[in-house]
Amino acid sequence: MNTWGNIFRLTSFGESHGTAVGGVIDGCPSNITVDLDFIQNELNRRKPGQSDITTSRKEPDRVEFLSGIYEGKTTGAPMAFMVRNSDCHSEDYDNLKDVFRPSHADYTWYLKYGHRDHRGGGRSSARETIARVVAGAMAKIVLRENGIHIVAYTSQAGNIRLEKPYTELDFGNIEKTPVRCPDGETAAQMTALIREVQAVGDTIGGVITCVCKGVPAGIGNPVFGKLSAALANAMMSIPAAKGFDYGMGFEGVHQRGSEVNDLFYRTDSGSIGIRSNHSGGIQGGISNGEDIYFRVAFKPIATLLQPQSTVDTNGNAVIVKAAGRHDPCVLPRAVPIVEAMAAMTILDQLLLA
Amino acid sequence: MNTWGNIFRLTSFGESHGTAVGGVIDGCPSNITVDLDFIQNELNRRKPGQSDITTSRKEPDRVEFLSGIYEGKTTGAPMAFMVRNSDCHSEDYDNLKDVFRPSHADYTWYLKYGHRDHRGGGRSSARETIARVVAGAMAKIVLRENGIHIVAYTSQAGNIRLEKPYTELDFGNIEKTPVRCPDGETAAQMTALIREVQAVGDTIGGVITCVCKGVPAGIGNPVFGKLSAALANAMMSIPAAKGFDYGMGFEGVHQRGSEVNDLFYRTDSGSIGIRSNHSGGIQGGISNGEDIYFRVAFKPIATLLQPQSTVDTNGNAVIVKAAGRHDPCVLPRAVPIVEAMAAMTILDQLLLA
Amino acid sequence: MNTWGNIFRLTSFGESHGTAVGGVIDGCPSNITVDLDFIQNELNRRKPGQSDITTSRKEPDRVEFLSGIYEGKTTGAPMAFMVRNSDCHSEDYDNLKDVFRPSHADYTWYLKYGHRDHRGGGRSSARETIARVVAGAMAKIVLRENGIHIVAYTSQAGNIRLEKPYTELDFGNIEKTPVRCPDGETAAQMTALIREVQAVGDTIGGVITCVCKGVPAGIGNPVFGKLSAALANAMMSIPAAKGFDYGMGFEGVHQRGSEVNDLFYRTDSGSIGIRSNHSGGIQGGISNGEDIYFRVAFKPIATLLQPQSTVDTNGNAVIVKAAGRHDPCVLPRAVPIVEAMAAMTILDQLLLA
Amino acid sequence: MNTWGNIFRLTSFGESHGTAVGGVIDGCPSNITVDLDFIQNELNRRKPGQSDITTSRKEPDRVEFLSGIYEGKTTGAPMAFMVRNSDCHSEDYDNLKDVFRPSHADYTWYLKYGHRDHRGGGRSSARETIARVVAGAMAKIVLRENGIHIVAYTSQAGNIRLEKPYTELDFGNIEKTPVRCPDGETAAQMTALIREVQAVGDTIGGVITCVCKGVPAGIGNPVFGKLSAALANAMMSIPAAKGFDYGMGFEGVHQRGSEVNDLFYRTDSGSIGIRSNHSGGIQGGISNGEDIYFRVAFKPIATLLQPQSTVDTNGNAVIVKAAGRHDPCVLPRAVPIVEAMAAMTILDQLLLA
């Protein structure tokens, strides 16, 4: 189950301390110009160490394509790519060899597969998201040729929450803040909170909001395979994701039908307009041409610089404590991953429709 | 895309005013005794008109199996079933023939398929959930032979919210209240709210919580196909679902890693225990043997007894207003649907593991 | 695994002596006029008892659609259909209750599923092909709107073989002979052979040739999912099928590349023509616009009116001998089944391309 | 559609003159010792230039695994591998830049994808079979731990045909002859024929027979997904394959049911035996525990050293003639590919059952 998608598909491979991580993109339309700089730049956005509130491990991840491109364009053949793992200090993890780290995948992986690769999380390492970001970047390239644009941002970090709706934000500001929040004041509060958490070796969760503009009507399916279900599936596959909602979501459940129904009206030009978008651009599982927007909740990263009690594979009580610097908040790095999974989902459903 | 699942699969069919709704269950293990009374009873639970706070349309839905059962047991062959649509007053819908009802699937269906069946929502009618409940009941039968039990209940209706965690509730009370909330006092408040909403022809949303007990460790996949993603996909395919979270979910994002990490410890018997369950029974996409619990947010039903402005297929402004009685809150009926989708997901992943 | 196809999909259900056999067609394009008479007529073509060289059991199979059609057209919703099993003399099979019939699926089904339904073959009965023929008829309706036509005929029965290539045959004669062979003289020889075999309670195998005209270039995939592989998969799923080849097939392996390469040339109108069609319309897995033709080998039906030694479920030696009349040759009935599977395959690949 | 399989899956990538060819194996059981020498040896078996009757291009193909192996064992994570394309004299193909070679995939690829990579066949090059052989070798390793062994051999080259059934052959002789035919005399005749064809720059087709021993009963499915259909699908996906049959196949269609039915009997030990195996180890789509055997027909390779008339992309008539040495017969190299696809199919169905 390392393949994702129906028509536009990603098969992902690689573990934290193997030779390389990468993937194979299948089903990409042919004759698309491949903007390698854009893809590398997207990959740089997920890289740790971009600011002092993210982990400082150096990962000079360079993507190399092995197939599927000829004279700068896609051929319709599968596009394999890889990023070599250059920073493999496996010995750093020797003390974790037999330890189940709390709230990591160590324990469940061990139960399922009967062994473990203790080095940096193995296959369950966040490094697997490299493949998502590369494939998502390729999807974005195809989507933008179709006038579809996808943007995500940090809308909540811990208890600091951006109250403005996305329609009042300037997305051009997202990349200007280390937390990838487009509202300067809120971003500053978030940054302060993350520093505070970081100072004590702790971590904090939050929420990312994503907006998809230009998605044509008619994408998705009415029963199973709803566009909303496909997006939920994609988002919940991201490491540390704990929740998904779209449109009015969890926060609108206290409202009444008369408050949230989206009314159709005749526009001045005679076409059909919709007065509001509580539906989040999806009705009955199918896109209606309005903006699609949704949220993804992330738990705090499980790796702490604080000592935690746990057990080893023999069931003996031990204390575990990560060394070096750590990543106090997943959100800034998760923004491009959310975008990537959204881009792949929208493109896949577009090709399927 | 009317087939769901990998190994245990449901192919669903039928629209509101066709001959029948039903489905085909494929991949059910053989030699399972089919408890038809249980299945019919599950179907009765989703039936409208069970109490005065749900719609009063009479739908004496009787399930009929057409194949796959021999001498009272499953054979391993596909199990087709159907429920005839007996209550087909198509003419009741004649005034909706060309109208796009606000926040229904009418408009998107029309854009996708180039036509519409205006009678009761057609394929997008909630009647398609009959197939889910029947297949889910069959999944429950298989699961309970494996010691796995699934229970859902209404945990929020409008702004009335059950604050107690599921561990403090007596699930035996769920079916005793019309809103399917196991806490008597909260249930009474919810019922009062729904009556109030109903009195003015309006509708209200809410949240259902679901708990899966006895799921063995090792179910689900580490990257794509996470058990959490499979559950999200299943839940978001339910009509009117707007959000999904599991474990600490959206409400835990403000907490710190040191607060929510689930610590392993050595039990008195020498086995490995887990002190808390903020993970919701799933770590790194794979079940860890603890209770799996999650929430599903539902929007208010779009059909109101109040007049609403909209347009018809020609773009002309019209007023739409449902007639007769209506369903002020989807929650009581959605409880068995959530359980059904959860049962199918858990069984499918169990057979896949 | 009772679902077939990628986009145009059939989920099949039903066993010989259950309530009904049928299926659910998913992914059929919307707004197609459903010619129910044509579908019923296709179903009649597979019916036993059409002539004295086929089995004489009466099966007045009437197809009933349960969903997916509105005002005579497809809606895009799944099309469920069923044919009731009216001729269920289960007691006729009581003597087979514990017997493994030679070269039937009794034994393997028992090993796989741990039980058996001895009545008429259960799920492995040829009655399951009813669902194929109905879905194939629907596929044919869609294909003919796209100028694609599919015809099959008996090209070999026992050692009687039609030597003429398909290009020299008048397909209008196929339905005029009981063996569905368009060459009158050969058909007469085949009929005589089948009568001879029938007279001694035996059965005989043969070959069906199928031709697909009007398939546009570009259907199929270059590596996995070759159009030739998809056709092989479809044909080998038909009961009693033992072989598949296309174009020059098995019979051309002794030829040299210089003899069988299909040469391109410039036509008078300046377009690209192909001088021969040893490729059978598929090159590198993808259709090239020429006629697609292939053959399917069928073994003799395993049910004989002769006594055969076998064992029962306890391993005791017993003699089995079918009663009443039997079907001496599967070919006439298999012709519409081959066409149906070809139509479904071509349409599915067309929708996927 | 570059992914193959249900549980044990191969995603294949790479074109003839790109950076590398390779694949990702997903779903391989964990804790299997990976015999890299065996895998490399299997790859060497498909290499051109092993004898003077195969093409002499040097391809020192070395397989490199990038993931999924830890301490010499499979981990359950996807196993990515690649083989670099070292012999990329793209300029050798410049004269083919705009030419459609007869009976190659050039023309259909161009029609499907709107462009072409003329260098050595691009994605449609036989180099893609490298991925199959590597994944097949891994499948063989898992199968042999389960007592399942798969062997293929050349049973017909041109009109030279090995008449002995497989049961009379010594498989230990297969690798001793350049044509991979275990019967010395027949092998000598085949070799002579191939040399003769080679001398005039021509090519010749043939048949490969494959035998699977030790496959347990119960593998495969009764309707769609028959084991025979899965094998047909796999074999027909091999480049140049034109036909597939199993058991009595095409050659038994002239026989009668009374001649070919496989009779059950009670063995001396009281178990159930089968007197013959015309069924080829599969009855009703499901394995019965006997040997599975089947044949695959291959056309002559389309690349000739003789001049052939064709057209270019502009429709102009041109003459094409391959340079250097060529491969007069695909059979010796196809033997390990047939084995690989058989191994993958059997393992996939075994894991699915």
List the defining traits of the structure above.
five-stranded antiparallel sheet; 353 residues; alpha+beta; 19 strands; 7 helices; homotetramer; globular; 22% strand; Chorismate synthase, AroC fold
Helix content percent band of chain A: 10-25%
Task: Outline the low-pLDDT stretches of chain A.
Answer: none
CATH superfamily of chain A: Chorismate synthase AroC
Instruction: Give the overall shape of chain A, derived from the CA principal axes.
Output: globular
Secondary-structure content class of chain A: alpha+beta
| CATH architecture descriptor text of chain A | 4-Layer Sandwich
Cα radius of gyration of chain A in angstroms: 21 Å
Number of helices of chain A: 7
- The portion of residues forming beta strands of chain A comes to 15-25%
Largest sheet of chain A: 5 strands, antiparallel
Order of neighbouring strands in the sheet with most strands of chain A: 1-2-3-7-4
CATH class of chain A: Alpha Beta
Question: What would you call the quaternary organization?
Answer: homotetramer
Ordered list of secondary-structure elements with their pairings:
The structure is a homotetramer.
Chain A: E1 3-4, E2 9-13, E3 20-26, H1 36-46, E4 64-65, E5 69-70, E6 73-74, E7 79-84, E8 99-100, H2 106-113, H3 129-145, E9 149-157, E10 160-161, H4 184-199, E11 206-213, H5 227-236, E12 241-246, H6 257-260, E13 264-266, E14 272-274, E15 282-283, E16 286-287, E17 292-298, E18 308-312, E19 317-320, H7 331-352
Antiparallel strand pairs in A: 1-2, 2-3, 3-7, 4-7, 5-6, 8-18, 9-10, 9-11, 11-17, 12-17, 13-14, 15-16, 18-19
